[in-house]
Specification:
- The protein is an alpha/beta fold.
- The protein has one domain: Alpha-Beta Barrel (TIM Barrel), CATH 3.20.20.
């Protein structure tokens, strides 16, 4: 794909923001901004940890500490209106930063006092309202916490299938990786695929490369969330490249939940994955808690505009969309990107 340059000036950040994109690794609960968290906590008389200012709540040194804050957010979402509000606000922010299509996770087990069907319907209501107001299409991926084990995973899947709707496109596996390898969830994933659901799994964020291999070969996932420790296994890199496996990477998250804290370093796994020719997409993960947005995730790696444009198109290729619709959007996005390049300042 070739891009033409010059004509009207457009700075790089504006170019990034305007790029048509898909967001494929985004957690509903992790999208909640600090102001909304404080608002919902007050609404439900939920006591927050001691803090001098709200931003102090968003301090975490590793994945374990982050998940404690994540669970606090989940406890603050207790009724239908909360889920509608949070879903709508999340998709509004996505649209503000160029997302045209979003596949997002939510954690059913983490919410008490509200049944799954009510949560799901409220999320759908928020999705429909956002589509009407911002012309953004979205799908939802219920995710199971691996910490709860495989039997709970089967109950989770039964619940998902019993309340199946068009908006539910697949299932995920998340929460603390160590010491919870993917293998015990083989049957859950087999049944999900048999039922026509797409499948993905968090693997290789703080877990070893072997967890990525298990998510691929045992769970049958064509897409991996994070996957960074794949860089520890050259044979796995070659295999994933040959198989066309997709990785939904989240640059800012790595600064909090992994051993890699320098995004400018050539040793950073996302840079290694790109250099190795793996299929990578850029995403926000938990933008409310990590104080980021989709534009920032594209900007923070400081890549050339041509590579950013290809990453935006990658996000469409990795999406779980009907191939006819994907082709239609691909043609539209390529034309739009060409027009953006014509405006990009030298």
């Amino acid at each position: 794909m070739e891009f033409s340059k010059s004509v009207q000036p457009l700075d790089k950040l504006s170019f990034i923001r305007a790029l048509p994109k898909a967001e494929l690794h985004l957690h509903l609960e992790g999208s909640v901004g600090i102001e909304t968290l404080v608002e919902l906590a007050a609404k439900h008389s939920l006591e927050l940890p001691l803090h001098d200012k709200p931003e102090d709540l968003l301090r975490f040194a590793d994945l374990g500490e982050f998940l404690q804050v994540y669970d606090l957010v989940c406890r603050s979402m207790q009724d239908v209106d909360d889920f509608i509000q949070v879903t709508y606000e999340m998709l509004q922010r996505c649209a503000d930063h160029g997302a045209r299509y979003v596949e997002f996770f939510f954690s059913p087990h983490a919410h008490t006092g509200i049944d799954y069907p009510l949560m799901l319907q409220a999320i759908r209501d928020g999705m429909q309202a956002a589509h009407a107001d911002f012309d953004i299409t979205s799908r939802v991926i219920p995710a199971h916490s691996r910490e709860l084990g495989a039997p709970a995973g089967m109950a989770f899947l039964e619940q998902v299938l019993a309340n199946r709707c068009d908006e539910v496109i697949g299932i995920g596996l998340d929460y603390q990786e160590r010491p919870y390898p993917p293998d015990p969830f083989q049957e859950m994933y087999r049944l999900a695929r048999k039922a026509g659901l797409q499948t993905t799994a968090h693997a290789g964020e703080d877990g070893p490369a072997a967890y990525v291999r298990s998510a691929l070969d045992t769970l049958g996932c064509p897409r991996i969330d994070h996957g960074y420790h794949i860089v520890d296994d050259p044979r796995l890199i070659a295999d994933c490249r040959a198989r066309g496996i997709w990785f939904t990477c989240c640059p800012t998250t790595t600064l909090y939940t992994t051993q890699w804290r320098d995004l400018s370093s050539a040793a950073h796994p996302i840079r290694q994955m790109l250099a190795a020719g793996l299929n990578v997409t850029l995403n926000t993960d938990d933008p409310g808690l990590f104080r980021t947005n989709l534009s920032q995730e594209y900007a923070v790696l400081d890549l050339p505009p041509e590579q950013l444009a290809r990453l935006a198109l990658n996000s469409l290729e990795a999406a779980w969309l009907d191939e006819a619709l994907k082709k239609h959007w691909r043609d539209e996005w390529q034309q739009e990107i060409s027009r953006l390049f014509s405006r990009l300042a030298a």
